Amino acid sequence: MQKKLAVLVIALVAILCASCSSGWVKNGTYLEKSTEELQPAKTGWIATPKKDLNNKLEKGQPMNKDFVPWEAEGFAGSGQLSKKWNIKLKDKTIPSFFLDLKTLKQGWVVSTPIDAFDDYKSFLGMIDPETGKIKKIKEKYYEMGPANGEYVIVNGPLGPLSTDSCWKIDDGKVLWSNSSTSMIPEYYFVSGKLIKTGILAESINRENNICSINSIDPWTGEVLWEITNPLYDLPYAKTSDKYAFVALNDSKRGISYLTRIDPGTGKVDEVKLPYYEIRAIEPIGKNVWVSSSEGHLTMIDAESMKTATSVKMAISGALYSIGGYILVTTDITKESLLYDPGSGKSMTINAQSANVINGTLVLEEKDKIMGADPKTLETTWWIDKKDLGDEASVVWLDWRGVLVRSKGNMACFAMPGK
Length: 418
Prior knowledge:
The protein has about 425 residues and is mostly beta strands.
């Protein structure tokens, strides 16, 4: 009898443990030592003189309307997807990070500094999502930014100094261009203002690069302000509907600051955080979520910049917002967690990788790629990896299909018959 009872207890514990590891588990939520009072930035921000910001500016025309970035509708497929078309790349050794993709209403624009399509030259072209046919674009640009459906922001060509410009998508007519003080850009939009981050060209050959952030009128090309900071070690920002946020990690003193920038004026405010090394920032609604190197996931009020809640997670890394939840991922251990701010619970994702692409939670396993419901992790659609080649992964998806990149191939998948 005692032996049967012991077996029953062990089985019950195993069932309970299994349910804990595969479902939502309560985290220990606690208030951390609060951030310091919000204060004007004093951690080395340097403003560039206005006269140096608009060299060789070819101005566009002012507009009494915002430049509203065009957003692609999400993918709504279900079940197993079938291959719509396939492109053979000429060089199977080119890694996927050399390929940059931007989505436009007219198609998918791909660019690479090494041409996987033709003779190892830098490449810029537009893929027809229906047929997979590629139309080359003559202009050589290093980076393509946001588009409003009619016009697109671009940066290039490659050289000692890069140029920001805006051109009409259909005919390539340039609306404005402006020589830039920074290279390797990323673009964001806040309240109708174009926010650009990059690395100062003059610091490229120094021991430490100096990163910058500026604001550009998207219709005229005029640079409204530019600020640089030696502690701003990555040209990275996150934007809400009202502000741009950047992280400052002072490695010498082991201190991190969350910095808030007004896109209209360039005014910088900051708070010193109670932990070191911000790994990621994700604005959601009226709050900003921050992931630190020690696994803290912290919610900060975007206006007061005060810490509201903090949770100790098993991992730290990139943050993504999906369906009211927060996805935490890391490349170090290939682990992923979903966190529910409402309940304070989290769920481990047992997949090789997890990502959020255009509003879809994408999970990748050894033999298949899946779109999943973030609440239950149930599969909504899937792609068989068979015959896709090595290192197959999703690079983009929208209502036109799921684009998968692998060594030597690029393929589009959709529901059968579409």
